[in-house]
Amino acid sequence: PSPKGAFGAKSIRGAPPEFFEFRTGRVTAHCQPVPVANLGNFSFSPDGKLLCGFSVDTNRPQWMAIWETDSGKLVARPLMRADAGYILSHRFSANGRSIYLGGRNR
After folding, report:
1. Is the pTM of this model over 0.85?
2. Contact 96, 45 (CB under 8 A)
3. 66 and which of 9, 14, 76, 99 could share a cystine (Cβ 3.0–4.6 Å)?
């Protein structure tokens, strides 16, 4: 759920995520697609304006993407490729300007 709990994001079978209101279930925005299969592991920025997702296939290089939550616009193309290990978790910093990653080496 978003930081204030008003909306959430879901992705079915690796499709780009879509945002929906918890109260009504209404879809509010569809995210722009990215050339990555099995995108998931989502987190919202502290202000709820951004959503970050990572590819979850640990047998391939992993990618990251960031979308605006109000429009679904991709604001950062898949911008990280972690060939040396696996991203297992991530979190925005308190000010929303950085993303912390946790993982392990191959």
Report:
1. no
2. yes
3. 76
> Which are the contacts of 32, defined by CB distance < 8 A and separation ≥ 6?
16, 67, 72, 73, 74
What residues does 19 pair with on adjacent strands? 9, 29
Contact between 28 and 37 under an 8 Å Cβ cutoff? The reply is no
What are 82's two structure tokens? 């972690």
The tens place of each residue's pLDDT in the chain, 106 residues long, gives 677 778 888 777 767 788 888 888 888 888 888 776 677 778 899 998 998 888 766 666 677 888 898 898 988 875 555 555 677 788 899 999 898 888 776 6
What does each C-alpha distance from 89 to 63, 70, 73 come to in angstroms? 13, 24, 23
In this structure, the number of other CB atoms found within 10 A of the CB of residue 61 comes to: 14
Per-residue DSSP letters for 31-74?
PPP-S-SSEEEEEE-TTSSEEEEEE--TTS---EEEEETTT--E
